[in-house]
Amino acid sequence: MHKVKDLTGPGRTDRFGIGGTDLGTMTTAPDGRLVAVFGDTFERATVGGPGWRSPVVLFGDPASARRGIEWTGAAGPGSYAAQVLPYEHNSIINGRRVSTVIPTDVIALGGEMYLHAMVCEGIGNVHWTEVHRSTDNGETWQHTGTTWPGDHHGGLFQMLTWAQGDDGYVYAFSTGFQRDKGLLLHRVPADRLTDPRAWQGWGFRGGAWAWGNPPTVALTGAYGELSLRPVGGRWLLVLFDAGNYRIDVLNLDVPTANLYAAPRATALHGTSWDAEDHAAGRVAQLYGPYVVPGSTLEDLHLAVSQWNTTTNWPYRVMQFAGRAPR
């Protein structure tokens, strides 16, 4: 893959009060706009300082997606990208200290949108996960009341990505937020997304895989951020392979495909800061790959995060493009 452009940072998102941010999982809103949800965000081009909020939402022009997303607005007053969930950082919520709420994925179902998020005390420590709903194309969000404890399914139901099939189900892969765990697969009827009792695991029991079994790890490894999307009649699963320091793309015929046998290719390689080459797909401290709406198998676009944890800049989201594996 090669770099298309920086999506956030100086000259890109200053007018929205966004200097440093990460993640940027995306979908297409019911009104046709691109909706991108970002994580910990600050007004300056760094980590820390004024204007800490998470998550925030930017809107993009869908016609610009495959040449480099152009932002058209933000959720919040005026042009300022406000925190879209009502809580205070480093506060006590339900008896637990919460430092931040981090988005993992967003989905549009009919005229509504749903956001899955992790309620955290520091990076990797998830108290619980929750689902929020928007009925106005991502401008405002309300808690659905749906939550799961952080240790649900042994802690492998924290970082989540979901996408709707043509069979009435939403399919979701999940892992932990520690970047040291494999993947589980789940499904839920789209009209019961917010009912935890309706979620089914994909599990191996009695010599066979089946829905409704306790979920079995579908792919071993050490994974971070995930992005599952139907593209060109296939299902693309993009993941941060933390164990191998790279971003990989899997091309599936169905979500229940054998992930070990599916076509898989490395889209971006992690590297050191002095060996970066974005034109050749070598990126230092990369994470958070998310499929950009409008992608095709031949022209796959990803939003990719980068954080120099020594200097706290770059702390940004970039757009990369390439081909999906066949």
TrEMBL record:
Record's protein name: DUF4185 domain-containing protein
Coiled coil start-end: none
Lineage start: Bacteria, Bacillati, Actinomycetota, Actinomycetes, Pseudonocardiales
Segments forming domain DUF4185: 9-320
Any one Pfam family match given in the protein's UniProt record, by short name: DUF4185
Disordered as annotated region, ranges: 1-22
InterPro entries linked to this entry: DUF4185 (IPR025442), Sialidase_sf (IPR036278)
Domain of life assignment: Bacteria
